[in-house]
Amino acid sequence: MERKVILAFVLVSCMSFVLSLECYECQSDDKPCEAPMTKMCAEDEKFCLSLVYDGAYGRGCTSNKDICKPQSSGGVGFDKCYICETDLCNDS
């Protein structure tokens, strides 16, 4: 019985690692990110984000799939905004 519990724990741990999303992450005030780092997103962050607003650039993880919509971002209309759901998809 104890062996089954340990096996189940290992399986769940591996599955949660595999299910984590990986996104590029960076912030720049004046130019596009040239060599962004990668980041494993938190469990609740299911989307990668890439945006440009008023000359500032950013990439990272988000839990808000509607952040690119002005009504979801406090009325802010981003110059460019892209949401995606696969590993390292926010490369632009």
TrEMBL record:
Classification of source organism: Eukaryota, Metazoa, Ecdysozoa, Arthropoda, Hexapoda
Protein name: DUF753 domain-containing protein
Signal peptide feature range: 1-20
Stored Pfam families: DUF753 (PF05444)
Organism: Henosepilachna vigintioctopunctata
DUF753 domain: residues covered: 22-90
Top-level taxon of origin: Eukaryota
SUPFAM superfamilies in the cross-refs: Snake toxin-like
Keyword terms: Signal
